[in-house]
């Protein structure tokens, strides 16, 4: 079995290293697009988000793990891809969109990407989690008008908006692959300013798959991700 590591590299290309998970030896190196970041395996292909650091030359690289070849997908809706999740025959890519001169963020959301290069915009989001055959997103664009939460049903294509109870300022979202419960990390409010307290302890809220609040856990300062030990 192989594990994969994306590396920024130099110039306009990056690399992905395939590493044997038993002896940790390098098995192969693939040349990808600029500033490669998140990855996911779909069938016998590895989809790689090449963000180009938001500089205008973004792409999605598709590595054929059997043939060893690399295909580059460029599209108007691929502007700053960062995170990739695999469901069925597709890769679901979270793209951070673009920023104007005042750093106002627009166009962030999830794109469905097929190996043949077809790209489809699905739902707005600046953070995403995938589980229960659904995509859960937090949409809080920099310079935007607030925070919105969406659930996109991969099977039906239906998009619904929901309001998770007790979240002040979301920092990360994830879905438990075993229970299907949703977890959202949030900053607390600074008692002096009313803004998010980035230098104070935060918390995690747990919700059922339908969005019903279950319980809260306190956590440390500056949380950025959730990982399940399954």
Task: Outline the structure in words.
The protein is 0% helix and 53% strand. With 230 residues, it is mostly beta strands. The chain has a four-stranded antiparallel beta sheet with strand order 4-5-6-7, with no helix packed on it. A hairpin with a 6-residue loop joins strand 18 and strand 19. The radius of gyration is 18 Å and the shape is globular. The model has no long low-confidence stretch (mean pLDDT 95).
Distance between the termini: 18 Å
The residue ranges in which pLDDT falls below 50 over 5 or more consecutive positions are: none
Q: What is the overall shape?
A: globular
Which structural class fits the helix and strand makeup?
mainly beta
Compute the gyration radius: what is it?
A: 18 Å
User: How much beta, percentage-wise?
Assistant: over 45%
Major β-sheet strand ordering: 4-5-6-7
Mean pLDDT: 95
- Helix share bin: under 10%
SSE run = EEEEEEEEEEEEEEEEEEEEE
Please give the largest β-sheet. 4 strands, antiparallel
Please tally the helical runs, counting DSSP H or I stretches of 4 or more residues. 0
Beta strands, count = 21
């Amino acid at each position: 079995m192989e594990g994969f590591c994306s590396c920024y590299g130099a110039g306009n290309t990056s690399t992905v290293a395939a590493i044997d998970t038993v002896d940790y030896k390098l098995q192969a190196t693939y040349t990808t697009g600029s500033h490669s970041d998140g990855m996911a395996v779909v069938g016998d292909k590895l989809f790689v988000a090449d963000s180009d650091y938001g500089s205008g030359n973004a792409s999605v690289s598709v590595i054929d793990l059997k043939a060893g070849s690399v295909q580059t997908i460029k599209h108007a809706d691929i502007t700053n891809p960062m995170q990739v999740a695999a469901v069925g025959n597709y890769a679901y890519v979270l793209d951070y969109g673009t920023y104007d001169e005042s750093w106002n963020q627009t166009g962030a959301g999830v794109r469905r990407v097929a190996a043949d290069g077809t790209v489809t915009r699905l739902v707005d989001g600046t953070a995403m989690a995938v589980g229960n055959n659904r995509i859960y997103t937090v949409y809080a664009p920099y310079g935007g008008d607030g925070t919105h939460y969406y659930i996109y049903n991969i099977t039906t294509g239906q998009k619904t908006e929901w309001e998770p109870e007790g979240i002040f300022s979301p920092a990360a979202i994830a879905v438990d692959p075993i229970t299907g419960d949703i977890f959202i990390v949030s900053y607390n409010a600074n008692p002096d300013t009313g803004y998010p307290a980035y230098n104070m302890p935060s918390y995690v809220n747990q919700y059922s798959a339908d969005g019903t609040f279950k319980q809260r856990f306190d956590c440390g300062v500056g949380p950025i991700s959730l990982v399940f030990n399954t």
